Structures are given as structure tokens and as C-alpha cells.
Amino acid sequence: MRFNSKVIHAGQAPEETSGAVMPPIFQTSTYAQEAPGVNKGHDYARVTNPTRTALEKLLAGLEGGTDCACFASGCAAMDAVIKMFRPGDHIVASNDLYGGTYRLFTKVFEPMGISFSFVDMSRFENVEKSVNSSTKLIWIETPTNPLLNIVDVKKVTSFAKTKGILTIVDNTFASPYLQKPLELGADAVLHSTTKYIGGHSDVIGGAVISSHPDIIENMRFQVKTSGGVPGPMDCYLTLRGVKTLSIRVQRSCENAKIIAEYLVSHPKVAHVRYPGFKNHPGHKIAAEQMADFGAMVSFTLKKDDVPTAHKFMSSTHYFTLAESLGGVESLISHPASMTHGSIPAEVRHKAGLNDSLIRLSVGIEDFQDLIEDLEKAFSSI
Ligand SMILES: *Cc1c(COP(=O)(O)O)cnc(C)c1O
Predict the structure, then answer these.
(1) Any idea which architecture 3-242 has in CATH?
(2) Cβ count near 209 (within 10 Å)
């Protein structure tokens, strides 16, 4: 089955008792047993729920993994992944990372004895240098958030394999429509399904997809034991949303390209970060490992300060000022004071995350309206 058919059909079949085309919302906490231990494949809804199972099968299909475990949020999924490790273990992660990931690693797991190195993974030699005999996992995010650097997934995963280190890619920014990390050698893929997969800014969720037997077993164990699972209504909404993934992401990418080009030519813009530009340092790798260059565009202003950025962002109408990304509607955000507020200023600046950096999540509206909207905001600063 090809990808655009998979987003509709992978792992899906009409529901058995009624023939319902969409999986019903199985709003139940438990399941009747005919005799102790004899059931229809489900015993308690923390462990499995048919609506969740339908979503898991679909996401496993999209990423090309043998199994998927869904969680109540992207953060719950990340939490489960790091709980595979033990005090003394070392994890290498990108230094330009989703702010919540950085917070989880440094505020929850570091005090428990797991150590982390945060490195600029767009330079492979940094990855090589940072691993040691305790390194158990390399956590890749590409394109990175919000600087849109590109990590060479094949290069990092093949290096990790020679060292017996596991790799996981947070594929939230690209979505499986654009990038398939398991095919590039990763052991697991993680999603905040809140973003492109759900696609409509109406539900929170997370997922881990893998074909690695130990990872799958551990994720299943944690679903059952820690229980950070999504409810059936949330799974239904995510399933509903993901069915249009291909056309949404395709349109968003087209719009993002046009907007990136508009920004580059704007006199008040200092620098535009968009992997689709030939002069982007990761352009060649992005062209190899992604189907298109994504719908996220970040840029800095010539007047590089927080008040100017804030003024700009309060002046748009279609670009809604909000955290998050990947929905049908365009969003605008200020990483330094919003998503990345929990990263200390000096760490931020070192990674190139300027005070005026503005991040756009380009939606599927008419690009002319989006450009007029940005033009209005530029005239306000
Ligand atoms: C949003 C996001 C997360 C966290 O997911 P939630 O669903 O908000 O918990 C993790 N990684 C990336 C790249 C994200 O954008």
C-alpha cells in the first residue's frame, strides 16, 4: 500500500459488529470476560482499547514499524522512552530541542541519575565526540525546533549501530508524510500527535513506533504499568485528523515555501531559517531524507529584541499567537518567551536562538492572506 492510501487504510477495517467505517469511540473502562482470563482480546482499558488500537495500527503503518504505543501526550511518550533507562546511563540529545523535552530531561531524569549531553547534532563530529561507554540512546530531533537545523539521520543511526547505542527520532516536526526515520535506520520514532498527525489543534497525544522487540515490549509494559494513556475520544479525534495528513502537509509545505521566499526579500528581516533554501546548511541532507522541506519557517528581525518581536506577533490576525504547530491554521510564536522559556537565556543564545526569533507554523489558508497578514505586522514595527 502506498503512503497516501495508508493514511486512510493502514490497519483499518470496518468494525465487526456493525460495519461502522470509522472505529467507534469505545467509551469503556473494562470488558466482560466469559470465564476468568477468557475475553475478546481486551481485559482492561488502561492496557488496550479498540479505538486506541485502531490508531496505533494506523500510526505503525505510516512509520513502517511493527507496533505503536499511544500515550496521553507527546511528553508522556517521551517520559516512557526515558524510563527504559537506569541511573548511570547516558543519553545524547540535540541542543536545539523542543523546550518540554529539555525540561523533562533536565528537571525529572537528570536528578534521578540519568545523564544527558546536549550537542549540535547538525555537525556529526559532535555526536561522535559526545558518546561514551555509558551512552545508551541518541535522541534525534530533525528538523530541530525552532532553528530548523537538519540532522543527518542515516549517518547518526549507522554510527550508533556500530556502538550498540539505540536511536530515536522525534518526528513531530516532519510528520511521516515527509520523513520516515525507521527507514533511515532509527530504532524508534516518537510523535507528539498533537501536531501534524492530529492536525486540527483539538487534541493532545503522543506515540512511539518501533520494530525493535525490546522497545516494543518496554512500551507495552509502560502503557500497562505507568498508564499514561489517551482516552478513546482523543484517539478517535486523532484518527479522524490523521486521515487528511497527506493533503494538509502538502499544502502547508507549498505555503511555507512561498512565505519563506517573501520573508527573505523583506527589508525588516535579518535571517530566515528554512531548510528548502539552497544556502541552508542542511539543505542537501533535507532533500535526501525528507519528501519536502516542511511547513515551519523561523526568522529574526533586524531589530533583534523581545519588545519588537512581541509587537510583531500581536499584530497578525490569521497567524494566531499560540504555542504548538502542525494544525490547519497558521500559528506564530516567540520561542524565547514561550516554548523555550524554560531554557536559560545563555543556553538559548549559544544555540542561536535570538531574542527576536519568530517561528511560523504555516497552515493551509490562502497564502495571499497569510502574506498580507505578515505585511500588516511588519508595518507595525
Ligand atoms: C509538542 C512537542 C512535544 C510534546 O508533545 P505534547 O503533545 O505537547 O506533550 C514533543 N516534541 C516536539 C518536537 C513537539 O513539538
Answers:
(1) 3-Layer(aba) Sandwich (3.40)
(2) 31
